[in-house]
Design a protein that fits this description.
Blueprint (H helix, E strand, L loop, with lengths): L4 H5 L8 E4 L5 E3 L12 E11 L6 E10 L8 E6 L5 E6 L2 E5 L2 E5 L12 E9 L8 E4 L15 E3 L7 E5 L3 E6 L7 E3 L3 E9 L4 E9 L3 E8 L17 E9 L9 E4 L6 E6 L3 E6 L7 E3 L4 E9 L4 E9 L3 E8 L17 E9 L1
Parallel strand pairs: 11-13, 12-18, 19-21, 20-26
Antiparallel strand pairs: 1-2, 1-3, 3-4, 4-9, 5-8, 5-10, 6-9, 7-8, 13-16, 14-17, 15-16, 17-18, 21-24, 22-25, 23-24, 25-26
């Protein structure tokens, strides 16, 4: 039964208010919340509004304040805390709440999830059993779960932004997957890809990293979705599930004479190029340029990259046009002195070519 805050507060005598600070576990007398430690883009503080009894016959009413400490607007938040032995949730207001495995999870409702930077909202809970106050943790989507650096050595890497894209690989190339910690391990359909390694993902709390190798011409589909502990509580929370899919086309490496070869150098900065599928693009730049990045993945596929900063050798990168589309091949200069304790004022020079690939 969902009780109103007013009806719960009149169920017993009001004791002196106590504030429990999220994660710091500091008890502060009085009704003014103390400063909470910032975790996951938000803080949660607790005020005990009333307590009665002890042990199994005890109970309390608490008010949580959730504040967005990120510089970005949040659209949803989650507050979790461990329940004491024998403690249970009786009712709540201004939240969707559940408990599983001795952990309570409260999420926003449809009307109080959006919090601009610095904004806050409150929700209340009536607890039965031992009167130890909650010590909550808080997270929101203004500071999403960390995504680690992609797997080293991958020829092409896909991330959350590549959802619903089609990526082309040559047989023998490797595909890296780098997703946030709330994604389940990816699954691959078809026989064109074979798994090489995987780590992290839900429920480990670590970023999801995976490497797959293209082993035979054909198609494959990589899929995963987000998950969260509160989705398995009773009742489940209202956090949406995010689906992620990338379609993979694996082709044989074309012969070297399959198409024309186009070489671009420093004066070609900002140039618009047109290639056909099978053409080779060669980027030839000075040794102080970083290896280029290709956005989006799959239109031109890296063949080999040598030199560039910090090797001291001229940068030469070859790409094969693999699929119709538009792509930017971009890089930037770097200098060792920029990474010293007192960086030098060396300016960085950006370089990019805009490539359109047709059949």
């Amino acid at each position: 039964m969902i009780a109103s805050r007013r009806s719960v507060l009149t169920a017993s005598g009001i004791l002196a208010a106590t504030t429990i600070v999220a994660l710091g576990m500091t008890t502060v007398a009085g009704s003014t919340p103390a400063t909470a430690t910032t975790v996951g883009g938000c803080t949660a503080t607790v005020r005990v509004d009333s307590q009665w009894g002890s042990g199994a016959s005890g109970g309390q009413v608490v008010t949580f304040t959730v504040a967005n400490t990120s510089s970005s607007t949040a659209s949803r938040w989650t507050v979790t805390w461990p329940l004491a032995d024998g403690q249970r949730i009786v009712s709540s207001w201004n939240t969707s709440i559940g408990a599983a495995g001795g952990t309570a999870t409260a999420t926003n409702t449809s009307y109080n999830g959006v919090l601009t930077s610095g904004a806050s909202t409150t929700f209340g809970v009536q607890l039965a059993g031992p009167t130890s106050a909650p010590t909550p943790g808080c997270a929101n989507d203004a500071a999403p779960p960390t995504t680690a650096s992609p797997p080293s050595g991958a020829d092409v890497t896909v991330r959350e932004a590549d959802n619903q894209r089609t990526v082309t690989l040559f047989v023998g190339q490797t595909l890296g997957v780098a997703l946030a910690a709330d994604y389940l391990p990816v699954t691959a359909t078809g026989g064109a890809l074979t798994p090489v390694s995987t780590s992290g993902g839900y429920p480990t709390g670590q970023p999801l990293l995976a490497t797959l190798r293209a082993v035979t011409p054909g198609t494959a589909e990589l899929t995963t979705r987000t998950d969260h502990a509160c989705l398995h509580a009773t009742p489940p929370c209202a956090l949406p599930t995010v689906l992620w899919t990338v379609r993979i086309t694996v082709v044989d490496l074309p012969p070297t004479d399959a198409g024309q070869t186009v070489v671009v150098t420093a004066p070609d900065n900002q140039r618009d190029l047109r290639l056909r599928v099978g053409d080779t693009l060669v980027v030839s730049l000075a040794s102080n340029y970083l290896p280029p990045t290709v956005t989006p993945a799959g239109v031109v596929v890296p063949h080999d990259v040598t030199g560039g900063y910090p090797t001291g050798q001229p940068l030469v990168a070859r790409y094969v046009a693999a699929a119709p589309g538009q792509v930017d091949v971009a890089t930037i200069t770097d200098n060792l002195c920029r990474h010293q304790p007192t960086p030098c004022p060396s300016p960085q020079v950006r370089w990019v070519v805009h490539v359109t690939v047709t059949t």
